[in-house]
Amino acid sequence: MRDPALIVGPVRRSRPPLEDRSAESTSVHLRHLAFHGHAEHVLAIFEAMPSADRLQHADPGVLRQAAVGVLARMRRLPPGSADELRRERELLESVVQLFVAECRRRDVFPRDLFRTLLEWSDDLLSASRLSDAVDACHQALTLGVRAFPEIAPWIHLRLARAQMLLGELDAAESTLLDMHRRLDRVADRDAVPALLEALGMVALQTRRAAFFKELLVERLRAFHTNADERWTVVNLMRGANRGVARLLVSRELSAADKFLWLTHWALLGGARHAGWSPIARLLEKCDNGSAYVRQYGTHTPGGRDASRDRPTIDATLVTRAMGGIGDFLMMTPGLHALRTMRSRPIVLAIPRRFFPIFDGNDDVEVRDIEEDFDPGAYAEWFNLTDCPAARVESRTAPAVATNRITLFARGLGITGGRLRTMDRRPRYVVSETEVKWRDRFFADRQIRSRFVVGVQARTDETYRDLPHMRQVVEALARHASVIVFGTVFPEGTGHPDVTEIVGLDLRQSFALAGGCDVLVTPDSAFFHLAGALDLPCVGLFGPTDGRVRGQDYPRARIVDARKMLPCVPCWRNEVTPCALTGLRLSACLGEIAPADVVAAMREMTAGAPSRLRPGG
Fold this sequence. Notes:
Strand content: 5-15%
Distance between the termini: 39 Å
């Protein structure tokens, strides 16, 4: 892996005076460094500024990297560096305050803001600033951290921890129970055992040992890959029952739970007494495998209260607390198959911002996952917040062979013959009103008589973006009229045959895309929209495998750089840097030649040559 310092240069304190460089050039430089994750460089420039000048450079990406840089320096401080630690904390606090203020000014609250608030709350807890930690967690909740269900549970856990240390046990219990009742809003499976452990501590401090023992069993059942945590639970259960013999004859445990305990006790105990580390690792893998099979091997509706006299809602509930749009489109074939199998209605609980995807879809009734309801009250419950696709991809990468349409369908209990014969095309409905609006849009711009290529400019995750999308658009514009969903040209510039679309809502953008002759898109929502609308599509892929993603899209052509770079696809994600550069951008996507994209587009549109310009 290349050292990022070899690309940008080492951090040096002796820099040209900031006043010799314009504020605009400084901002551009900072944003460039922040985009590529050079936290130390960002911090060196940011810290050298007078406090009053930092506001004009308060880009969210810059502030995130400045916070990362401070935290990295704090971790490197030797023990006893009290004065240096105090100064670093003061700097971190100023960065956090500026970050929050800037996001409020823009009315945009990105994931990086909540990552920073989570790390800030951690530091406040370590500094025994408990009330400030409570305030930081409440601030994250107020600003909307629930939109990121992989972060929100950890904010709740930090809040409960601070409340417990302040002696506010009732408040801590309320925080934890709210989270425990709605595990469908927890996207990080590692947060579940942490939640159960914290709730067990509160139970013991409030003299409810029986509840503590129930939580131990629930901790044992939860799937995760932390062998040390599971061994801790095995020993706690043995201690709580005063030995193995009493545990095995206890009437408080079911036969299945006793067998589960014995399995973990034997495998993990054997791992800890194995004299050879490969044997220990093998036993731990077997233990993880047994836990995985128990949790996911067969579908059983999850989360239902144990009491049988509770009234139930005669409907099937499907929950998913996060996006993205492409994932929801890939869920629709499985939802359609599930609806044909069930006589009861399908209720899909998702964040409200994704409701428009399902307008006109008669397979489901949507409801807001943030509403206060009990998933266990439904006759059947599939929790897709615990993402079945991500589980398989992380386990099999980089040799992922099954696409998400199949994986989501399996997560909904569609297997065997029903899985093989189900309609695999995503479902999305463009209304007649939207078609008329689209026709007026094209007519007003005299687009209808020309060949139109729609291009998705960028994705929600940088690692899937082409760094040279502007050059791709310019190459396409030599042959057709291009509609870009987003922007690729600097402000004040453009191209006569390119229309950049900004400010439209999701359904308007999708309606326009549906009127294009072909779509050109990275691995994101418009690729799956093309599959839903049966549009020709050129998919631009790198870290993920377009041949897998597009298995069910017969009109898709995949362009990637696997002939140049055999590491394609690596199946990394946004938080894992490119193995070749150590940066956020994917080197493989930069190797896709605009001419190859044009060639794929022309291949897809061979049936309409008269509307394509020859190009130059």
